[in-house]
Amino acid sequence: MNTGTLIGPEELATLLVEADPLVIDCRKALDAPQSGRVAYAAAHIPGALYADLDTDLSDLSKSGLGRHPLPDESAFSAVLSAWGWHPQRVVVCYDDAGGALAAARLWWMLRLVGARSVRVLDGGYQAWCEAGQATTSVAPTSGFGEVSVRFDASQLVGFEALQAGLSEASLRLLDARGAPRYRGEVEPLDRVAGHVPGALNRPFADNLDAGGRFKPPAQLAAEFAPLIAPYPPAAVVHMCGSGVTACHNLLAMEHAGMPGSRLFAPSWSGWLADPARPVETGAGPEAQNAAAS
Asked: In what order do the strands lie in the sheet with 172-175?
């Protein structure tokens, strides 16, 4: 397994005893803003701190950049400092949605600032509990550091670069939303249904098996390969509704041994901020490349 992506409950339990990992609880239901904090207060992995998608991993005051805009570097630096993070410290992120909500987002944001010792708990909080591991309702005292981080711009794709890349056919855009939203049949969150013209659909849920664990790397690679062909992983750009679940596809590709893909962080909600940007509905380019052959 790629040790830069996932960790199992047993390995995390050992890590808690033998090292000093920074464990971050990222649980949150998007339709219930306080649900994650309530769940964390009730029970969490011992030693875990809580990260709120809306306040720690996003800056909702920004306009035109989607529903979960990235925070400024200074704001994220302050969050990491309050957690006691430093570049050499191992980080483990978890949620209760197989990593698809904020755990993969935090994993990616840490990679964005140069961290490499960061992993997502495979199967999330449920897997931890099912493995019989201990939980607690006691919140630990957070450490404190003083770090100043910078985002690696090469891992991000903006509006102009995305439009140019699609026009020149120099990149492959993958949309992580569910198929009905991608096709424009339903849209529960954004003002217009559909997708960015040229995007292909890879629902993030397809990365998980029936038990909520990530599929094996070889299986994921076999599923992504026909979708991105003939492009290399470094030419792949991910998006979703607001730049959160897209990180799950990025994580899945990394786990599959296909590193180097990037994120269009504003995603669909940011794309729609300008009414002049085109919208496409239906199955998408060449019926999803003939159903990925």
From this structure: 200-201, 172-175, 236-239, 262-263
